[in-house]
Amino acid sequence: MLKLSTVSAPHATGRLASRLRQPIVDRVEGQAKPLVRWGVGHAVPRMVMRNAARRGDLQGRLIATSPGAYPEELLDLFAEVRASGPVVKGGFSYMTVSHALVKEVLNSNDFRTGIVAGSGILGRLGAWAATDVFNPVEPPSLLVTEPPDHTRYRKLVTRVFSVKAVERLRGRVEEIAAGLLDDLAAEGARTGGRVDLVERYCGLLPVTVISEILGVPTELREWMLELGGGAASSLDMGLGWRRFREVEASLEEFDGWLTDHLERLRTEPGDDLLSQLVAAREDGRGLDQRELLATAGLVFAAGFETTVNLLGNGIARLRDHPDQFALLRERPELWPNAVDEILRVDPPVLLTGRVAARNTEVAGVRIGEGAIVTTVLAAANRDPEVFAEPDVFDIARENAREHVSFSSGRHYCLGASLARMEGEVGLRALFDRFPDLALLPGRTRRPTRILRGYETLPASLGRDARA
User: Fold this and answer.
1) 393 close to 331: Cβ distance less than 8 angstroms
2) Number of H helices, E strands in the chain
3) Pfam families from the xrefs (predicted)?
4) C-alpha 323: how far from its chain's center?
5) What is the Cα–Cα distance from 341 to 347, expressed in whole angstroms?
6) HEC profile of 138-165
7) 393: nearest Cα among 310, 320, 301
8) For a designed S-S bond to 43, which of 39, 194, 413, 452 qualifies (C-beta 3.0 to 4.6 A apart)?
9) Do the beta carbons of residue 444 and residue 184 sit within 8 Å?
10) Tell me: the pLDDT tens digits for 24-68?
11) What's the rounded Cα separation, in Å, for the pair 226 and 205?
12) CA distance 322 to 152
């Protein structure tokens, strides 16, 4: 026995020490991993971009522009890029503002979405610090997956967003808009007609619509808008530490709620899209938990985030261009085209990017495997080779619909038809109800670089046509 105890005691002591040490290790890792994620995903790229901008690099200057800058503030920079050639080598990637080349890259099988972590120290650190929490720019999100997985995920949700399905929703969207406008009128009566249109209308309309489609309780809509606003910066590069932690907190909170909500739908399914996703099978295979969270999360967030911007941008454009607003009043059949012109001149998304899947060429420029090409959607929408007088806001423009604000190719926006319809219904209903609506001083843009829109849009409602 003595011999046994003298042999086993050190092992027992080692196991005890290991158990005591593990919580400390877990705590240290829990604190270190967010720092590593921020460093690899934001601090290092921000340093690279700032240095490039100081050297006059065009892409560095684009990224370094003030978050939320108005499109007109970027026009000179777009012109410089255009004058520098069809494809420009930037400090972080290649870049194009050509409408034709943007579509070529977005439609090409030589390019894929998502940036694969490298094998170097940054790549290994990023892999070690990765989290399973839903993030729209991490696999298996539809934004950054490719066939066959992308095809499988998209097929499960496409039918809900088809043109025919969206038109069937039009009547319900009109009802929701009317109800929100009643609430807006009531608030205006309490405040002397002063309201914030983003907070009380532009945000609530699309989040209510997508909540009904997905079976999310409408009483959560304002909470969802708050989370969406917090998570919108996840698409940006170069976030500061505090903003990065706010974004991660929003994503974690949304991930936790969505996990619980999907679990409830497993036992109490409804006839909504999320219930269908939980039960869906393609060739006998359904979505696993991570795929389900990523697909449901992206559809929900994308279902209102960009439409909030479309509505706010549209209100501002029409009130800032009274001649175009007057033309709409005379020719209401132009509303669908007006929405596309709004999307063209003030798109909800500034740019997107692709990674070369193999060595290839674009406009004679050799692009090596793994290189990134940034496609600047907002600049392509003002390409003078496609749009006559591209910087003029013209709701009667014959080819307004040729904009690339919804991207192109296999990653073309799933909710494009829904966004167009909500934009048309939402804007027309607002101005029909309050034809004298006037914007007040103090409007602010969202503090994001990729998603573009208004954070606040104070207005005076004016006369209520229904009264």
Assistant:
1) no
2) 18, 12
3) p450 (PF00067)
4) 31
5) 9
6) CCCCHHHCCCCHHHHHHHHHHHHHCHHH
7) 320
8) 39
9) no
10) 555 556 678 888 888 888 788 888 888 888 888 888 888 777 777
11) 14
12) 46
The torsion angles phi and psi of 354, rounded to 5 degrees, stand at: -135, 155
Which segments within 119-217 are labelled E, that is strand?
Answer: 194-196
Beta bridge partners of 460: 194, 438
Q: Which tokens hold the place of 112? A: 């894929």
Identify the CA nearest to 357 among candidates 111, 101, 108. Answer: 111
Torsion of Cα atoms, 342 then 345 then 350 then 351, to 10° = 110
List for the chain the helix, strand, coil content (%; round to 5): 60, 10, 30
Angle at 332 between CA 327 and CA 337, to 5 degrees: 85
Amino acid of residue 424: E
Residue type, position 282, single letter: E
Contact between residue 63 and residue 449 where contact means Cβ atoms under 8 Å apart: yes
Give the C-alpha separation, 330 to 309, whole Å: 26
Q: Look up residue 120 and give its two tokens.
A: 């170097």
What's the token pair of residue 364?
A: 């004679």
Nearest partner of 388 among 379, 398, 378, judged by Cα: 398
Structure token digits, residue 126? 């990023």
The whole-model pTM stands at 0.88
Domains and CATH numbers, the chain: 26-460 (1.10.630.10)
Side chain identity at residue 467, one-letter code: A
Alpha-carbon torsion 405, 409, 411, 415, what sign?
Answer: positive
Separation CA 41–CA 38 (nearest Å): 5
- DSSP conformation class of 285: B
3: amino acid identity, one letter: K
Residue 309 CA to residue 329 CA, distance in Å, equals: 23
What does the pLDDT look like over 360-403, one tens digit per residue?
999 999 999 999 999 999 999 999 999 999 999 999 999 999 99
Q: By the 8 A CB rule, do 309 and 449 touch? A: no
In a 13 Å sphere around the CA of 418, the CA atoms on its Cβ side amount to: 28
Largest CA distance in the chain: 102
